[in-house]
Amino acid sequence: MNIDEQLKIIKRGVVDLVSEDELVEKLKENRELVVKLGVDPTSPDLHLGHSVVLNKLRAFQDLGHRAVLIIGDFTSQVGDPSGRDSTRPLLSYEQIIENSKTYTEQAFKILDRDRTEIRFNSEWLKPFVSFKDNSIELFNVAKNVTISRLLEREDFKNRMKNENPISLLEILYPVFQGYDSVAIKADIELGGHDQIFNLLVGRDLEKLYSIKPQICITVPLLVGTDGVKKMSKSYKNYIAFNDTPDDMFGKLMSISDDVMLTYYELLTDLNMNEIKAMHPMQAKKELAYTMVKRFNGEEAAIKAKENFERVFSKKELPEEIELFKLERPMLLSHILTSSKISKSNNESRRLIESGAVRIDGNKILEDKMIERGGFILQCGKRNFKKIV
After folding, report:
1. Calpha distance 36→179 (Å, rounded)
2. DSSP 339
3. I need a surface site. Which of 95, 191, 226, 375 has the fewest CB within 10 A?
4. Do residues 375 and 288 make contact, with C-beta atoms less than 8 angstroms apart?
5. How many Å apart are CA 58 and CA 112, to the nearest integer?
6. Residue 327: how many other CB atoms lie within 10 Å
7. Same fold, 3-219 and 317-388
8. CA torsion 327→328→331→336, rounded to 10°?
9. Which residues make Cβ contacts (< 8 Å) with residue 357, sequence separation at least 6?
10. How far is CA 92 from CA 73, 166, 233, 235, in A?
11. C-alpha span between 41 and 30 (Å, rounded)
12. At what angle are helices 48-62 and 257-267 packed, to 10 degrees?
């Protein structure tokens, strides 16, 4: 495959590319490039938001390059400030290791296991911050990185403007992530668009160590099922790799048409003109089928589609369903009342106990706490709400 064809694949859906000329030079070397992706296992599940950058990493593997997936067992204890308006809660090391086990297994639903190297960044970051041979390597790096440079990042500027605190650990986070690139001599680093500052620090540190600087490539942040915030477990608007086929299908069917088109663009390589020519309902079913097939196989996708269509036939499921925004965890009975499906909480509870209430087609017989949206709530045959 020639350079232009490779560039077309690499640049699809990319936000930042620093720089294209340098990337071309690396591709011309006709060798296996080291392509880095770092993930901090802050929760046990990967979600479709992660798959955007994992798909890009897989694209590099298909072009003959080697993926290095860095598990941030050290940096998870620091907390990445990227895109945050407050300090991220820190996890215990035991929880981080437990989460990392599921991360590595789930990542191979997209990545080629044979062309992937798994590394834990405590391997080099513990020595980096430790006293050894009468010096601490962090000091050698820190004297070449200015506070003014670190405070240039947009999220820090916003937090200072709003008088939200920034911890010293958060200031150091980009240095730690940048040193990951030094440790593995990364040729290319991938990340979400909110990671661009951290990736550029990696370039600076590689130059400091006389390593040819890495190419920085970022991809868009996938919006969650609420259609507002980025997909995140913290915001309870995510679709996990490990969701059941029926849950994944139902959540994807609950998203808005605009969000659906974004998912097609970022999660598939299908022709967007053909997708836009479809009826929205047909397109949404095709998206849900494609995603379930990717993570659970064709048989599961066929069954999930049949289950959905059996519950929500064209006669039963309106083309336009009113949205209800779940802004905090609520009892199901309170959602029924607040969304005006029923007139009172007592009536809501009676409807639940009588079997009149369904979530994504599944009958609910007991009142329960609902922590996040991303599903279709049905009461009787004609009353529907999209809970987002």
Report:
1. 12
2. T
3. 95
4. no
5. 7
6. 9
7. no
8. -10
9. 332, 336, 351, 363, 364, 377, 378, 379
10. 10, 21, 18, 21
11. 33
12. 30
Query: What token pair was written down for 25?
Result: 């030079």
Do you know the residue count of the chain? 388
Secondary structure (3-state) at 168: helix
Closest CA to 69 of 26, 16, 126, 108: 108
Q: 3-class SS at 287?
A: helix
Task: Name the helix (H) or strand (E) containing 362.
Answer: strand 362-363
Cα 191–193–197 angle (5° rounding)? 80
Element (H, E) at 70: strand 66-71
Reading the chain (388 residues) residue by residue, the pLDDT tens digits are: 899 999 999 998 899 999 999 999 999 999 999 999 999 888 788 999 999 999 999 999 999 999 999 999 888 877 554 544 444 566 788 888 888 888 888 999 999 999 999 999 999 998 888 877 666 888 888 888 877 777 777 777 777 777 787 777 778 888 999 999 999 999 999 999 988 988 999 999 999 999 999 999 999 999 998 888 889 877 778 899 989 998 899 889 888 888 999 999 899 888 889 999 988 889 999 999 999 999 999 999 999 998 888 776 555 566 667 888 888 888 999 999 998 888 899 988 988 988 888 887 778 888 989 888 878 888 887 788 888 8
d(CA 90, CA 248): 29
Q: Which fold has domain 3-219?
A: Rossmann fold (3.40.50)
Q: What angle do CA 211, 217, 222 make, to 5 degrees?
A: 145
Class of the CATH domain delimited by 317-388: alpha beta
Q: Which two tokens stand for residue 7?
A: 């560039």
Tokens 């490779």 belong to 6
Per domain, the residue ranges of the chain are: 3-219, 244-311, 317-388
In DSSP terms, 70 is beta-bridged to: 38, 119
Residue 47 DSSP label: B
